[in-house]
Amino acid sequence: MKSQSEPAVLVALAELLAPGRPQIVAAVRRATEGTSEDSAWDVLYEQLREPDDDGPPLTVGFDWKEDPGNVPEYLRTLSSYPAALTWDWFEPSVAEFVELEWHAGEIMEGLLPEVGEQCLRVGVALMCFPVGDSYEVCFANADAAERITELAAGIGRENDLFVLREGVFD
User: Fold this and answer.
1) Helix axes 6-17, 22-32, angle to 10 degrees
2) What average pLDDT score do residues 11-24 get?
3) How far apart are CA 71 and CA 115, in angstroms?
4) Quick check: helix, strand or coil at residue 54?
5) 36: burial class by Cβ within 10 Å (0-12, 13-18, 19+)?
6) Where are the domains positioned within the chain?
7) What is the pLDDT of residue 2?
8) At residue 1, does pLDDT exceed 50?
9) Contact between residue 162 and residue 110 where contact means Cβ atoms under 8 Å apart
10) CA 112 to CA 57: how far, in whole Å?
11) Residue 83 in contact with residue 76, Cβ under 8 Å?
12) Which residues pair with 135 in a beta bridge?
């Protein structure tokens, strides 16, 4: 049973995922009021992906065919990239997957949760919007991650927005 209305939840998600980005929150609010042709969920997702006057995109996408070596480079492009995030573990982990002869998609499914665990260690959650064969990811304050996932679940979107961490794809 839903405890909050979907419009209120979507606005709350926008506020948690895009702090300091009032244009994103306003676009989601307009969509929840029916002044957009797109669903409010789609507006939230698209607004996070697009640059606006307040800054660059807040998400980056990884296709299942993506070169896993691009993960650190792509994540560094996000304005919310945590400076404390280190990558000394990354190359050995990729090498381990390659040694197991995993294909790129399997490696991405193995690596992204590891990146998520590293993020949690520095107080940031790596949030995931799975879209088809791709993973659109963004950073959120780790303290807000549980609330974000609860809100998403409350409107039936628990498989559409979640924290990347070990075991998430099991």
Assistant:
1) 170
2) 95
3) 9
4) coil
5) middle
6) 6-163
7) 46
8) no
9) no
10) 19
11) no
12) 62, 130
pLDDT at 3 over 70: no
Contact 66, 136 (CB under 8 A): no
- C-alpha closest to that of 58 among 16, 29, 117, 107: 16
Cα 28 to Cα 61, 151, 168, distances in angstroms:
21, 15, 27
Helices (H), 77-126: 90-99, 104-121
Dihedral-angle region of residue 156 (phi above 0 means left; psi in -120 to 50 means alpha; beta otherwise): left
Residue with the two structure tokens 């998400």? 59
* pLDDT tens figures, 43-101: 999 999 998 888 889 999 998 888 999 999 999 999 899 999 999 999 999 999 999 99
**Which class for 104: exposed (0-12), middle (13-18), buried (19 or more C-beta within 10 A)?**
middle
Tokens of 132: 């088809």
Amino acid at 40: A
